[in-house]
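SECTION: protein entry
WANTED: fold as tokens:
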Amino acid sequence: MTLLNPAKRPFLSPSSTFASSFFGRTLHMQQIRRNLELLAQTDLPVLLEGECGTGKDVVAELLHLQSRNPGRLAKLSCVSPEEITSVLDSLLDGLLEGDAVESELATLLREGGTLLLDGIHELDLPSQSKLLIVLKQYDTGSVGGTFVRVISTTTVDLQGLIDAGKFRIDLLYRINAVKVMLPPLRERSEDILGLVEFFLEKHSREAMRSRPLLSQDVLQMMEGYYWPGNIRQMDNLLRNFVIMGSEEVITRELMDSRNGVTRNWALDEVDVSHPVALKEITRQVTQDLERQIILKVLQANGWNRQKTAKWLSISYRSLLYKLSDFGAAQDNQSKVHTIPSSALRAANY
């Protein structure tokens, strides 16, 4: 469990340049910003849903900072079974024995603040049951006169997990008074240049270097790029650019080094022979991209699923869920389509 202190990171202030760049100009993000301002004045638990790298933790910290009584902000990773089991078992033992538990989570629940449940979709059913007991027992939202807000993040639709029997519906009701959907960066092309400017300025200042310039060609390439790793990928890419000082760092990431195929390769698979909603096309392309990345890494690791999960920085349980979702098996030696190396690297962000 990690105690966060966003107040010590000035760029995370709701009125900061980063906040302006993060929310950008798109109508969807501006509406999210207004909704967060309203939510900050309530006691409601919030569920943040979005792809990896879309800024769910940033939104959680901004919401915490704007809350009426911020208190502490503690992040509990649901990706680590050992961590979540240890924390929840300790609390439950204390409840059963009537003893005061000395832990960061227990202190937060007694004194008030924000509990960030990171990657709640990763919890197995036994851990979900334990978490539900803790949330009910401490009655988050009103603990001894203090206020505890629960913010949960997920990269998958929890209703789909409920339908598959992998997530408790009563836990969803407990954490999902309001759901905020964060769009992927590819749906925010008009916000890309603002984010580029912010990250260049930030990393140049941190590295104590003069701010490098990007050519118009590279900027246009970045505006049209698919950004499978979203904002986190851009952040890492521009940090490397500031350090290395060469645009080749960026162009190599955005283009396939072998045949010059650009990031729009995924659009070749889209069927536009009949009317179809843009949202549905985006969903299909994203799923196909993820499927091909996973299959390629599986193949590279000799179809060893545990090694593949570590390689992709996801839990073994999450990998199994994704494999079952598109019907892949360990011994499935199906042909894997060629994908850009940039997309493969993005899977590790």
